[in-house]
Amino acid sequence: MGAMSAEAMARQAGRPRDPGVEASILAAVQDLLIESGYAGTTIGAVAERARCGRSAIYRRWETKAELVVAAVGALQVAAEVPDTGTLRGDLVAAAMHFANADDRTASVLASILSEIGRDDELRDVAYRVVGGPPVAALTAVIERWIDEGQVRANAPVALIAGLVPTAAFGSVSLRRRALEPDAVVQMVDEVVLPALR
Amino acid sequence: MGAMSAEAMARQAGRPRDPGVEASILAAVQDLLIESGYAGTTIGAVAERARCGRSAIYRRWETKAELVVAAVGALQVAAEVPDTGTLRGDLVAAAMHFANADDRTASVLASILSEIGRDDELRDVAYRVVGGPPVAALTAVIERWIDEGQVRANAPVALIAGLVPTAAFGSVSLRRRALEPDAVVQMVDEVVLPALR
DNA sequence: GTGATTCGGTACCGATCGGTATCGAAAGTA
DNA sequence: TACTTTCGATACCGATCGGTACCGAATCAC
After folding, report:
1. Distance CA A148, CA B102 (A)
2. A26 within 8 A of A32, measured Cβ to Cβ
3. Which residues of A touch B156 (CB under 8 A)?
4. Which residues contact B63 (CB under 8 A, 6 or more apart)?
5. Structural contact between residues B166 and A167, judged by C-beta atoms closer than 8 angstroms
6. Does the beta carbon of B85 lie under 8 angstroms from any beta carbon of chain A?
7. What's the pLDDT at B168?
C-alpha cells in the first residue's frame, strides 16, 4: 500500500474549505469590534460583512467567544528590530510602529478591554499580541545601544520598553485615533532619550 | 401671601425621594461596570445590587445610556495640587494620585472604553473626568516649579502632564490592577525628572 | 456517477434585555 | 383626612441574540 502524504491524509473527501472565507470572517470580526464593540459584533453582522452564511462561522468556531479569541490572535504584530544606524532613529522607528502601524491592533484591543478582565483565554491572547513582541523589540534596540555605549548601562530598559507601548495604547484607546508623528518624535526626544542617557 | 423659599417651592407634595437611593444606584452601576462590563450592567442587576426596584431607576433616568453617563460623571476626581516642598515630592504625589486613588475611575473608564467611541455624551463626560482636573493639577505643579527655577523654562509641560495620566490609565486598564508605588516612584525618577530638568 | 463536505441562506428556539405599566404600601403635604 | 409622590415588586411586550437544524447548490475524492 502506497504511503500517503500528511497533506493527503488530512484532506477529507468532499468540498474543501475556502481559505478566503476564514480570513474574511476574522477581518470582519476585527472591523466590527472596532466599530460596534463586543456586544455589537453579532454573528449575523459578521456573516453579513464577510459575505458568508452564519453556518460558515459556526462550522469553524463553536462559540462567539472562540471566534473573538481567534480574531484577536490573528492580529499580527511585526516585531522587527529597527536598525537605522542611530539611537534616535531606532527609537523613533520603534515608537512610530506602535503608534501608527498598530493602530488597528490598539483599536481592537480597546474594544475588548472590558471582556479581557473576565475572559482568561482572551486576556492571554491579547497580552501575547501586545505585551510580547513589541516590548521585546524595543528592549532589544535599547540593549544594543547599551553595547554601543550610547545608552548608560544602568538605564531603566524595562521601564521604557513598557512605557512606550503602554502610552501609545492609552492614547489611541482614549482618543480613538493614531498618535501624530510629531507627538511621537517629541516623546522620544523629550522623554525617552533623556531617560536613557 | 407669604414668600416661599426656593426650597419649599421645589418641594413637591407627596413622599420625597430618598437621596440614598440615587447614591446607591450610581455606586451599583460603577461596581457592575467594573465587574461585568457595559452589556453585563443590566437594569435588573443594578436594581438588585442597589436593593431597590427597577422603577426607582427609571424614575430618575430615562434610558440606560443616561444612567451610565450619570454614573461616570459621579466619579469624583480630586484635583488637588500637591505641595510637599520639593519638586520630586510633588511629582510623586501627583503621579501616585492617578495610579492609586483613581484606580476605581480607571477601571470604570476601561469598562466603557468601547462605548466611548460611539457615544458622544459618554465621551464628553469621560474626558471631563480624566483629561480635565488631573492634567490641570499636574500642569500647575510643573509650572510652579518652573517659576522656582527647578524646571527649565522650555520643558515639555503639556507632554509630561498628558503622559503620566495616560500611562497610568493604560497600565491599570491593561493589567487590571493599580500601579505599584515603587513603579510610580521609578517612573518619576527615571522618566519625568530627566525630561523636566 | 457516488458520496462526502462546504457553500450561502433561512427558519426556528430559548433566553435575555430595555422599557412600560401597574400594584399596594409607605411617607410626605395641605 | 384627602391627596400626591416614592417605595419595592411584578407582569408584560417587542426586539435581539446565540445557537441549532435544515435546505438545495457547488465542489472535491474515488
Report:
1. 41
2. no
3. 186, 190-191
4. none
5. yes
6. no
7. 77
Residues A48-74 pLDDT 10s: 999 999 999 999 999 999 999 999 999
Question: Can you point out the beta strands (E) in chain A?
Answer: none
Lowest model confidence (mean pLDDT) among A83-92, A185-194, B155-164, B174-183: B174-183
CA distance A108 to A126: 10
Q: Phi and psi at residue B44, in whole multiples of 5°?
A: -65, -40
Q: Is A98 on the interface with B (CB under 8 A)?
A: no
Mean pLDDT of A22-26: 98
End-to-end CA distance of chain B: 69
Cell of A174: 482614549
- Identity (one letter) of the amino acid at B32? L
pLDDT of residue B13: 78
- Residue B4: count other Cβ atoms within 10 Å of its Cβ: 10
Q: How far apart are CA A26 and CA A38, in angstroms?
A: 14
Nearest Cβ partner of A159 from B130, B166, B187? Answer: B187
Smallest Cα–Cα separation from B135: which of B164, B110, B109, B113?
Answer: B164
pLDDT above 60 for B2: no
Tell me which of B69 and B3 has the higher pLDDT: B69
Give the whole-angstrom CA distance, residue A140 versus residue A82. Answer: 9
pLDDT digit string, tens, across residues A129-167: 877 787 888 899 999 999 999 999 999 999 998 888 777
Q: Model-level pTM?
A: 0.82
Q: Which of B126, B125, B159 is nearest to A174 (CA)?
A: B126
User: What residues of B are in contact with residue A117 (Cβ under 8 Å)?
Assistant: 34, 37, 110-111, 176
